[in-house]
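Why do we bother with holo predictions? Because pocket geometry can differ from the apo form. Keep that in mind while you read this record for EPZ.
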Amino acid sequence: MEDAYIVNGGNVLKGEVVLSGAKNLALKTVIASLLFESKVTLTNVPKINDVHELLHLIKKLGATVEQTENTVTIDPSTLSSCKPDLLHASKLRASFLLFAPLLHKFRECRIPNPGGCRIGMRPIDRIISGMEALGVTTEYQSKDGYYDARLAQSPKGSYKFSKPTHTGTELLIMLGALGENEIRIENSALEPEIDELILFLNKAGAKITKVGATITIQGVKSLNQTKPFRIFSDRNEAVTFATLAVATKGSVEIHNLIPDQLHTFNEFMTKAGVKVLIRSNSIIYEYVGTVKPVSITTEPHPGFMTDWQPNWAVLMTQSTGVATVHETVFENRFSYVDELLKLGAQMEYVEESDIDNNTNYHFNTKGSKAMKQKIRITGGAPLHSAAIKIADLRAGATLLIAALIADGESVVTNANILERGYENIVEKISSLGGKLKRV
Ligand code: EPZ
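The structure, written out:
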């Protein structure tokens, strides 16, 4: 298999799309299911590479997994190993969340340094400090890249994140959910997946409350599901399809979404002159003759999300002027720039004098390789076909959109990276009139 998309671009894409379940909720609920006493059923689980990898990983740890289409049932009672295997764990950022269920089940575990998309160094220093504050002891073994962790008694205490972290917050929630004590997490991240994870656990008997960025958890003895839990739809997929339709001068009605989760994105689309029509369970995005240049700076939720910026950048190649994209969450999220240049896009890096100012960036600037964090895009240059290569998930969606805009046949390689997070992407794009095939 060549692992590529052959794309015939230049068509206006129009139609309707039904979103799949959210990758970044499905992964967390699968791992949180391992905290439960008995079987857990999740519905609307996307059939994507990351979920596939994770299910494989937990099966290797002894969990029993049944999957029928988008429904997954996990029996955590058969868990038998506390050491995830390096090959599979290193493919997934979320694998380090296994600390929580494995520590509760075995009181000790060995977890490899996490993998995931190469969009920065992605250290877990804040997360390790958080676990330690709640009573976990950890020791990093540089010889094999594993963390040895132990939990001698119920988690207790409190932790304030110096800067919010999305999966870090989720790990501490999972860690505190079981036990005898009250845990407090401050300056937590605010992403909607976190609220939904809390809902998932509370429905099973957990006692977790979140007020602003403060989370209070009263540990409980056990978690038991009473009915299947549905994974909400993927807001990042919604952004990709909205961008795709508008950038090809078309329109799309996106079904199954939660409009509130896209509030910020919709504001920016409206500023760009896109018609955004919000219905109760769907949103229509329509190109109406122009895309205005609009600059963005990424921020954690509720700001303009980092996962949306690569899509925004390709949209701005179709604008009538100059816009900038400033990334503040991950330090290496411009892998698509060189590839878009091959298609004829006009974009360049902008030197930032405040790159070392720790307060402006969510990654650790100290000691990390100085990366450029801002690009300037001049819209209007016609995109032409080329062979381009995907380096990370959201950049992948961006390159596919660009190839669908560009006249002629393009080849987009490393399709498997895009398929880490997008279900049935070829079928969905084809249903809008896009011409592409997977080879
Ligand atoms: C989650 O990443 C998502 N991944 C990302 O989705 C998403 O972009 C991001 O949150 C923001 O919403 C999953 O949910 C699996 P962070 P996460 O911890 O949790 C630094 C996608 O394509 N940091 O909030 O890894 C970190 O390196 C993706 O679906 C530390 O320095 O994000 C980053 O620069 C990719 N030390 C920043 O903080 C730490 O201990 C924010 O990270 C923890 C994080």
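The mean pLDDT is 94.
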